[in-house]
Amino acid sequence: MTLKLSWVASANAADHPFPLNNLPYGVFSTDGSMPRCGVAIGDMIFDLCAAEGDDLVTPAGTPVFDVPYWNDFMDLGPAAWAELRATLTDLLSDGAKPRPEYLVAQADVQMQMPFQVAEYTDFYAGRHHATNVGTMFRGAENALPPNWLHIPIGYNGRASSVVASGTDIRRPWGQLKGPNDVLPRFAPCARFDIELEMGAIVGTPSDGPITVQEAFDNIFGYVLLNDWSARDIQAWEYQPLGPFQAKSTATTISPWIVTAAALAPFRRDTPAREFELLDHLKDCGPMLYDIDLTATLTPEGGQTSTIARTNYTQMYYSAAQQLAHHTSAGTPMRVGDLLGSGTISGAEKDQRGSLLELSWGGKEPITLDCGATRSFIEDGDTLGLTGNAHGDGFTIGFGPCIGTVLPALKDPFAR
Ligand code: MN
């Protein structure tokens, strides 16, 4: 597939994240206006609420784009998803009648959460990450838990703490106990971290176990996802029920939902299996995507350093396998369910998707481009993720996924 040309000129550059091939869905507002649905095209947003009001796009009998979330549209189902994408491709193609009256400059808007998060689950499905973290927490002999190669391990997170890119993140307090401490204490997190992940968004509900193919078809799209992690809280609390407060501060997502349809040219197989998976988790086609990912760190007032470069194909399990596993004991899934992939680390040191791994638990601090060093996040640091799939003369990008870490409160219980 090659670049599809649009009458929105800025969309026609080979390295622009939002060409006509992409058409990612978001929620935006301009000063004083109600947040509403739009689609990114080049440097602009095509205002779907306005277009729906003029009957240019009519996916349902009642309006679905005049609300600050994409859940109502997702609920219309895959036939409506395909029809909107086809309609927008026609409307925005080079040669179609230009309709600049529906465009809003992205520079002039505030982006919001693109959907209401029904529930949030986070997985642990990157093999290099699980091996690195397991080695640090339990030793090399016990790095991968015995179940890891047979099921995608996950835990139920908090939908309420998922925030849109640009939201400041307050350093949390928590219960900490160092290896040489006799007793735990309650204090600000000293080992605050990122996790470079992809988020998959469920667009079709289910009630009971579904197959991997059904799960793949039920996923509406993807976002970048930074699963902020308090490593010192995590190390003390995680056994035997897994992370809890360590992952409860915030999870940042990118503001644009990149649809599974837009990513279709980039489908790739999962890696070779060490153990054959049981039938209900077996691969049935390429269900990962070739998406280049980076993590960046910008000290307060300083220059931006790229601290990790990796790729979504490093996952051992696809989002479809994770979703199928999630339903296998019968839990219903809802429109707007969000599944975090787990940290996406590669085999090389500079491909590691968390500071915990990059600095090897703080033992090997990394050096930023400005010369400063980091083991974990310092107050004022801005952490960012990028994601780009590279086609033949075009790019499918995700937009920013950033957050700045603010100092811990002096007294978290002050009223
Ligand atoms: Mn995570």
Explain this structure.
By secondary structure, this protein is an alpha+beta fold. Helix content is 16%, strand content 26%. Strands 6, 7, 8, 13, 14, 16, 17 and 22 form an 8-stranded mixed β-sheet that branches. Strands 9, 20, 21, 25, 26 and 27 form a 6-stranded mixed β-sheet that branches. A hairpin with a 5-residue loop joins strand 23 (366-367) and strand 24 (373-374). Helix 5 crosses helix 8. 46% of the residues are buried. The model has no long low-confidence stretch (mean pLDDT 97). The structure holds manganese (II) ion. Residues 122, 195, 197, 227, 340, 342-343 line the site of manganese (II) ion.
How is the secondary structure organized here?
Blueprint: E1 25-29, E2 36-41, E3 44-47, H1 48-53, H2 71-74, H3 78-92, E4 103-105, E5 110-111, E6 120-123, H4 127-138, E7 154-156, E8 162-164, E9 169-170, E10 173-176, E11 185-188, E12 192-193, E13 196-202, H5 212-218, E14 219-227, E15 229-230, H6 231-237, E16 251-253, E17 258-259, H7 260-263, E18 267-268, E19 288-289, E20 292-298, E21 305-311, H8 319-327, E22 338-340, H9 355-358, E23 366-367, E24 373-374, E25 382-390, E26 395-397, E27 401-406
Parallel strand pairs: 6-22, 8-16, 9-27
Antiparallel strand pairs: 1-2, 1-5, 2-3, 3-4, 6-7, 10-11, 12-15, 13-14, 13-22, 14-16, 14-17, 18-19, 20-21, 20-25, 23-24, 25-26, 25-27
Helix pairs in contact: 5-8
